[in-house]
Amino acid sequence: MTITLLYIVSGLYLGWLLGTNDTVNVFGSAVNLKMLTFRTAAFIASLFILSGAIFQGEGTTKTIHSLGNISEPAIAFSIALCVAFVVLILIKIKLPVSTSQAIVGGMLGWSIFVHATTDWNLLSKFIISWILAPVIGLILGMLFFILMRRILNRTRIHLIKLNSYLRIAMIIAIALAAFGLGANNIGNVVGIFSNLSPEVSIDFGIFSMGGIQILFLIGGISIVIGIYSYNWRLLSEKSNEILSLAPEATVVVLASQAVVLFLFSSSWLANLLISEGLPSFPLIPVSSTQIAIGSVIGIGFVKGALEIENKTLARIGLGWIVAPIGAGVLTYSLLFIIQKLFNYPIRNESLIPIFKQNEFQSIASHSSKFNMVLPGIIFLSAIIIVILLYLFFRQQKLRLKAEKDILVQQNQLYLSEKAMNELEMRTFAVENDSLNLKLQAKRKEFMDIALNISEQISFLEKISSGINEAIKTSDNEERIQRLNKLSMIIKQKMSFPQEKKEFYMQIEEIHKDFHMKLKTSFPDLTNLEKRLAGLLRLNLSTKEISTLLNISPKSVEVARYRLKKKMNIDKDKPLNNFINNL
Amino acid sequence: MFNFKHAKKSIDIIEQFLGLIDQGSLIFKDGVKNYLLGNKENFQDNLKTLSNLSSEADIKKREIENILYTQSLMPQLRGDILKLLEELNNIIDLAKTNLFEFDVEVPFIPSELNQDLIKLTELSVLAIDSLIPAARDYFVNPDSVKEKLHRVYLYEKETDKLASSIKRRVFQNIPQLKLSEKIHLRYFTLHIEILSDVAKNAADLLSIMALKRAI
Fold first, then answer.
1. A351, pLDDT greater than 60
2. Does residue B201 register a pLDDT over 90?
3. Pick from A59, A149, A169, A541: most CB atoms within 10 A?
4. Cβ distance of A164 and B8 shorter than 8 Å
5. Is A154 part of the contact surface with chain B (CB cutoff 8 Å)?
6. Which one is the CATH code of A504-582: 1.10.10.10, 3.40.50.300, 3.10.20.30, 3.50.50.60?
């Protein structure tokens, strides 16, 4: 078993390359579109690639085996190594490559080297299949796309719901395409090692695995390792090179891939078609990349636009030619070197059928048998328990996270409310201060009014008693004297000294900025001139100003003239405008 | 993984959000009419309602944002969708701000302009009203978005024309107005007209989004 594993290492390396290269077409778009995480997509793809390889891998493996019977493990190792090398080089130079074409090229190189009679009929089947696969992919792509478009137009599903449906469809399509890829391409990985299959059988209760299926399992595992070891951060770049599609189109491409891979790998379908007397599809490994590209071109036809650049198509064509020829030439050269240098005998042998009708019975009678029912049950139960525990803890974690998020949100809300309240309180405080000031001003005003009233009353009382005394006086001269005194008092009162003082103080308070500017810009102004400027700013007329200043209107005019001169204002410019704009 | 529950919730919220924008545009129209006709109480009511609608729309938008990001819904389209919702939210925000400008600045509007300004408001609001069904269709029937958006472009153009004619009339045919009043009127014409411009911007975005979605 260990020696077998050593020999098939080159095939497993080819499987690894297939895993890194071809599986990108199966789930790359889904991951790139962020419809699925890499972890989910890779898990589904791995599971179904393994299932496809184990349960459906026989057909294509048989075909690869029928290209030539290589009984020497070292030669099979060398061929697979050459093929893997060519595939690696083509991947490195970013040329789309099909492992199927490369392996057939390698086998052809070997058959030419050993002068074996080439089965042209089988070879033509290979070439036809490689042409037919993308063509069927194209037709299916068109049909599925039209169907999808009609369904979507008729059902008018809401975009967000559609997204969820497309996720489900994508998972199913990835599973089917991965199953098809496993079934169809496993022949490339282990086909030439079919003679090395171990003679063991493992019974899992529900199904049994023969030697060749164990080989498929090993090959499948190499593909799965390829999926996981690939730098998936480069996935988006890789899938953008050829396929950059909407989710709807991705589902269509994957479905087309799944159907075409199924057509070219299902023995059941082939038997069914033959039993009905219909021509069947040959069970030949085809390139999933080429099917996907055919499907994308089909979608492009329906949409009326070329979805793939001509340059990419040319590179695909180049890969189509270079892969088989390169693998053939390299295999031939290596075999030549091995024979000449090491004198190793390389010969052709007649085909030994590896798949017999009663394979399982013969394996059961001739090979060692392992009963895996109980370990299988224990293993499955353990896995189920682990999954359940994982789901339980995950659910708990998510619940806690959600609760924490809510608490954080509530806290933020509380903080913002607090900040708002503080702001509001500050606004109220400012408002209260201003109201207090107003209240104080009003109080003062009322006090002034009250004082004024009492002053007026006492003044009027004084005048009234003075007049009464004057009336009572019999002496005419004294009466005139008293009346003159009263007239003098009234005249003094008429100059309103106190009121005027307050009036000017208030003006200065209200037009604080103006008076400040006046003081700084024209420091030479006298008090009277400053007062005059203040009154002019109030837009008072000359007559009003003369009354307030207790001077004649002419004196006001003279004062205005002086003020204008002191302020250096042009004669033709009005003083009022200058003061108002100060 | 498939998030049907959240999908349904977000569909409902988007529907409510679009309803709020629709209502907001109608309230704006009503508010301007009430201002022009001097119905102060009704105008204040409109202002209050529009303010509430705008805050509600803000909350709905944030809810949608939250669901789309936390539940990883439509990762390839959510950027565009959120941008569209932002544009739509801008409309109701702008409508609220503009109606507040009427309340704060109390522009003097000569009665001979009432009819024209009412028509301008109606046209501007019609552009928004035509945008909402197109936005709804983007989610269910993207092929019909473009034909619905034609109306938005038409109303926007008509709004522009009418706004220019009002401005020309204000500056050239009403000499009794002070320059400050004329400039004030120009601003308020712009306040009404700009709603249709924002609707047009949203329509531009929507038409690109519909093209992207067309399969």
1. no
2. yes
3. A59
4. no
5. no
6. 1.10.10.10
